[in-house]
């Protein structure tokens, strides 16, 4: 009977632990929401070869090449169903992709793009949280929507693009 009485006294402790708050309640509320992964961008030294890999070898649907002079890049999108790959190639000598490819001769992952529901609210809040934004105002990105880039040193080594959904 001693074991049974000890078990009865310890049971409330177990119930207390199992009724702790769900993890989601610990996330601070924001004026904006992070959405889905829009794309992963890959810098490529040879855009035609990269297009051919995804289209002819892997069988993906691949867009036409689009020049974005404001960003100094040519872009091609590879449709994957749940997200996209963005192939980036330098446009002009001052292209950020040209400097990336000088350091990474065979290319590689350049950035990830995540959708947000309110890019201006995101900018305001991220600045308050000491996250550096690489432009004062959003620019129009490859999808015709406002985008900003977050400094990779503030995002654990990853260049993060936020795009207005």
Automatic annotation (TrEMBL):
Keyword field: Cobalt, Isomerase, Metal-binding
Pfam families for the chain: Glyoxalase_4
Name a GO CC annotation attached to this entry.
mitochondrion
TM segments?
none
**E.C. number(s) listed in UniProt:** 5.1.99.1
Any one GO MF term held by the record is: methylmalonyl-CoA epimerase activity
Q: Kindly give the InterPro entries that the UniProt entry links to this protein.
A: Glyas_Bleomycin-R_OHBP_Dase, MeMalonyl-CoA_epimerase, MMCE/EMCE_epimerase, VOC_core
Q: What class of enzyme is it?
A: isomerase
Instruction: List, for all copies, the residue spans of the domain called VOC.
Output: 36-165
Q: From what superkingdom does this record's organism come?
A: Eukaryota
Q: Report which reactions are catalysed by this protein.
A: (R)-methylmalonyl-CoA = (S)-methylmalonyl-CoA
A GO BP term here is: L-methylmalonyl-CoA metabolic process
Similarity comment text for this entry: Belongs to the methylmalonyl-CoA epimerase family.
Q: What does this protein do?
A: Methylmalonyl-CoA epimerase involved in propionyl-CoA metabolism.
What NCBIfam families does the record point to? metmalonyl_epim
Q: What is this protein called?
A: Methylmalonyl-CoA epimerase, mitochondrial
Q: Which organism is it from?
A: Erpornis zantholeuca
**Upper lineage ranks?**
Eukaryota, Metazoa, Chordata, Craniata, Vertebrata
Query: Which gene does this sequence derive from?
Result: Mcee
């Amino acid at each position: 009977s001693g074991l049974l009485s000890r078990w009865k006294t310890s049971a409330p402790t177990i119930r207390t632990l199992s009724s702790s708050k769900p993890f989601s309640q610990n996330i601070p509320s924001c004026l904006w929401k992070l959405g889905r992964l829009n794309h992963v961008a890959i810098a490529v030294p040879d855009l035609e070869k990269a297009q051919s890999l995804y289209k002819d070898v892997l069988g993906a649907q691949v867009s036409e090449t689009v020049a974005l002079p404001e960003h100094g890049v040519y872009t091609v999108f590879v449709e994957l169903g749940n997200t996209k790959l963005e192939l980036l190639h330098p446009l002009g000598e001052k292209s950020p992709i040209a400097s990336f490819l000088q350091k990474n001769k065979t290319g590689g992952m350049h950035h990830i793009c995540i959708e947000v529901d309110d890019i201006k609210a995101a900018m305001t809040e991220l600045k308050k949280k000491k996250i550096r934004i690489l432009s004062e105002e959003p620019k129009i990105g490859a999808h015709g929507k406002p985008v900003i880039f977050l400094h990779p040193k503030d995002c654990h080594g990853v260049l993060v693009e936020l795009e207005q959904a």
